[in-house]
Design goal:
It contains 13 helices and 20 strands. With about 450 residues, the chain is of the alpha+beta class. The chain folds into two domains: about 250 residues, no CATH class; about 130 residues, 2-Layer Sandwich (Alpha-Beta Plaits). About 45% of the residues are buried.
Length: about 450
């Protein structure tokens, strides 16, 4: 049995071509699947349980997808709702769905899949040997667990299948692997397991596997032997190279992809041109694991931050800006100790030279000759008032600190006034662990509601 999965975009909020979406709907998909989140933008969103994407943009795109779902008469599934996939962001998407169902006059059966994991669950799992750190993480103690603001488990195909099997028109899933929403239905309908996971990986970012990534929409057709991926955008093509290359995307190993319950191996996969600018792929295998494990993500508050910016154009300072920055940092630490009586472990200050190794740091190998260098100073403390006070201590020195002790003080540029900006609470990822489950639904929760008008 063939299963056609329509993928409108790499993530809700990124945008897609409405005409390509219409062509995809006309091609009779069996399900529409889209991702809703990622860890790409850092830990803040998981830490706060909020979305990084515009609500108005997500609402507009979700309206189009609800209309597409109604036309096609198939389920619509989104994974990792609201960037981070916490209960708060699943309910955020549920609120949007309820609003739109009422406006569109649709009656929808909506399944919410929650992925949140309580601290006590992890404490018991750790003590019973079912919580395992991934390199280079270490075994986590009670204090570290209690410090987490949010913890989620990444759902796999089994949890998405359970949500679909409720008869839902719409599935709003918490944190899930990027591939799970695409692989779930083909696997349930008997598709080749290796092909199901491989095709899901290729289509996870929509048209990223095509010659025109911004076109957004692709259709993946799965069967008992392999899969075929086709672009829905006008004038867009999939090529063997563009499809095969996507195994490199966000994956440390181009041949192996780990998922809940096993891993995908594409070592023997072959890619050939197919009709309608598509690519046919066969040969991947799925290797089931003895244990069913899910990856965990957690975030914790690490302090409050203030940011300051300056711009240096004096050629003499630009030429030796790293030396100047080292001197300034040492000087500022002394000022803070003398003025505020703070120990080193009560705060952190960091200078980033924008335009000089600011992206890769010590890993940078290219060298150039900048005309000017932006200086970003980050101050982190346990309290926002402390971080702001440190900024006030540093302020005149960031503007006037000389390269040597026996020369006139320079004047650098502040691009904004006030120069400091309070960034508020900041978070860090604090889990790199897997959790063994006796059953794939252990710890996951489903809620089904009827919304809209009769």
């Amino acid at each position: 049995m063939q299963t056609r999965v329509l993928v409108p975009s790499g993530v809700l909020g990124l945008g897609f071509d409405p005409d390509a979406l219409a062509r995809g709907v006309a091609a009779n998909p069996d399900i529409i699947a889209i991702d809703g989140g990622s860890t790409d933008s850092g830990p803040f969103y998981l830490g706060t349980g909020t979305s990084k994407y515009s609500r108005s943009v997500c609402r507009d795109e979700w309206r189009q997808l609800l209309e597409a779902r109604a036309t096609a008469g198939v389920p619509l599934v989104i994974g990792s709702c609201g960037t981070c996939g916490t209960a708060e962001t699943v309910d955020w998407m549920f609120g949007i769905t309820c609003e739109l169902a009422a406006e569109l006059g649709q009656t929808l059966r909506v399944a919410r899949l929650y992925s949140d994991v309580p601290v006590e669950t992890l404490r018991v799992a750790r003590d019973s040997g079912r919580l395992s750190p991934l390199h280079p993480a270490q075994t986590i103690d009670d204090a570290a667990l209690e410090a987490m603001t949010n913890i989620v488990a990444l759902a796999g195909a089994e949890q998405i299948q359970a949500a679909i099997h409720t008869g839902a028109d719409v599935v709003l899933a918490g944190r899930a692997t990027d591939t799970a929403t695409i692989a779930a239905l083909p696997l349930a309908r008997g598709a080749h397991s290796g092909a199901a996971w491989h095709g899901a990986k290729i289509a996870e970012c929509g048209a990223f596997c095509t010659t025109r990534p911004a076109s957004g929409v692709v259709m993946v057709t799965f069967d008992e032997a392999g899969f075929t991926v086709r672009p829905m955008g006008e004038g867009v093509r999939c090529t063997p190279q563009s499809v095969a290359a996507h195994m490199l995307y966000e994956n440390s190993d181009p041949w192996i992809l780990y998922e809940p319950g096993g891993h995908l191996d594409v070592t023997a996969a072959t890619y050939t041109e197919a009709a309608q600018d598509g690519v046919r792929v066969v040969g991947a295998i799925w290797v089931a694991a003895g244990d069913y494990r899910v990856k965990l993500e957690g975030a914790r508050l690490v302090g409050y931050q203030t940011m300051m910016l300056a711009v240096i154009r004096d050629p003499r300072y630009v030429e030796v800006v790293e030396h100047w920055a080292d001197r300034l940092l040492l000087h500022c630490r002394g000022l803070i100790a003398a003025s505020l009586d703070l120990q080193d472990d009560a705060f952190d200050i960091e200078l980033r030279l924008i335009g000089v190794d600011s992206a890769l740091g010590c890993l940078e190998r290219d060298r150039g000759s900048p005309v000017e260098v932006g200086v970003m100073l980050l101050i982190t403390a346990n309290d926002q008032t402390v971080a702001t006070e440190i900024a006030a201590v540093i302020n005149p020195h960031l503007l006037h600190y000389p390269l040597t002790d026996d020369e006139p003080m320079p004047t650098f540029a502040f691009p904004v006034s006030p120069v400091h900006s309070n960034r508020g609470a900041i978070y860090e990822f604090a889990l790199n662990h897997v959790l063994d489950l006796n059953d794939p639904m252990d710890g996951f929760r489903l809620q089904v509601d009827e919304v809209g008008h009769d």
